[in-house]
Amino acid sequence: MGAFRQPDLNGDGRLTHEEARADVNFSPRFNDIDINRDGIVTHGELLRYLQRTCGVSPAA
Ligand SMILES: [Ca+2]
Question: 14, 23, 37, 40: least surrounded by Cβ within 10 Å?
Fold first, then answer.
């Protein structure tokens, strides 16, 4: 998941709004990706977002 790891500056598998701001592509979509609106995008939330927008399914 390069698209996720790249802006995940501290590599903890979760992406804060602070981290997302550094990425011009990710930042405008943060609130769409953060499904439960807790201010943190998890790997699961990103996968759901990608499935919804791109029709991408995670590898089994
Ligand atoms: Ca969240």
Answer: 37
Domain membership flag for residue 11: yes
In the chain, how many domains are there?
Answer: 1
3-state secondary structure 2-60: HHHHCCCCCCCCEEEHHHHCCCCCCHHHHHHHCCCCCCEEEHHHHHHHHHHHHCCCCCC
CA of 39 to the centre of ligand 1 (A): 6
Query: CATH code at 27?
Result: 1.10.238.10
4 CA to centre of ligand 1 in angstroms: 14
Ligand 1 centroid distance, CA of 60 (Å): 23
